[in-house]
Design brief:
This protein has 180 residues and is an alpha/beta fold. The chain has six helices and seven strands; from the N terminus they run αβαβββαβββααα. The protein has one domain: Nucleoside Triphosphate Pyrophosphohydrolase (Alpha-Beta Complex), CATH 3.90.79.10. Strands 1, 2, 3, 4, 5, 6 and 7 form a seven-stranded mixed sheet that branches. The radius of gyration is 15 Å and the shape is globular.
Length: 180
């Protein structure tokens, strides 16, 4: 991945997760998954963002993410997950962040990893394929993404949203450092 998409900036974040959030993470780890692949998908001058049913109509939107299935390459997983969540076909452009997260739960800490990419659309039509998981898909400018959605995430009390806000800020800060 690094030879093809560049060396990512390494980051670390720790957050206290609510019980229901911890249970969701534990469901993933019980299946052997301790990671997500997050893609900031460029669509023209904007980025594609999602909203899930759990926070529908809240004003919170974030970059889409998902995990690799057993035996699936990270590149194939990113393309599959982004299509399921956004209806779009993508091309990975740059490996931007390799982020470690300490998911702090009442009964211990779960170590999680997010692999964060800059990508672009290559086809498809915007709209969730997986409507069970995804409530809404739209585009936002960088400025919009760094505005109200992040303020709402930070104020939510959810550890997962605090982490997603951190990833969004870190992503754009590193893009600036890279001159992209």
């Amino acid at each position: 991945m690094i030879s093809k998409y560049g060396a990512p900036k390494k980051t670390h974040f720790a957050a206290d997760f609510l019980e229901f959030e911890c249970n969701l993470v534990k469901q993933s780890t019980e299946k052997g998954r301790y990671h997500d692949i997050t893609c900031f998908i460029r669509s023209g001058e904007d980025y594609v963002v999602i909203q899930k049913h759990a926070y529908a109509d809240t004003g919170i939107y974030r970059a889409p993410s998902g995990g690799a299935n057993s035996g699936e390459s990270l590149e194939d997983a990113a393309k599959r997950e982004m299509h399921e969540e956004t209806g779009l076909e993508i091309r990975l452009l740059r490996f931007v962040l390799d982020s470690r997260l300490d998911v702090v739960c009442e009964d211990g800490t779960i170590l999680w990893r997010s692999l964060v990419f800059l990508s672009e659309t290559t086809g498809g039509e915007i709209g969730a394929v997986d409507t069970y998981e995804i409530y809404d898909v739209r585009t936002m400018s960088r400025e919009e993404m760094l505005g109200e959605p992040l303020r709402l995430m930070d104020a939510s009390g959810w550890g997962g949203f605090k982490y997603r806000a951190f990833l969004t800020r870190s992503f754009f800060e590193h893009l600036d450092e890279l001159g992209l």
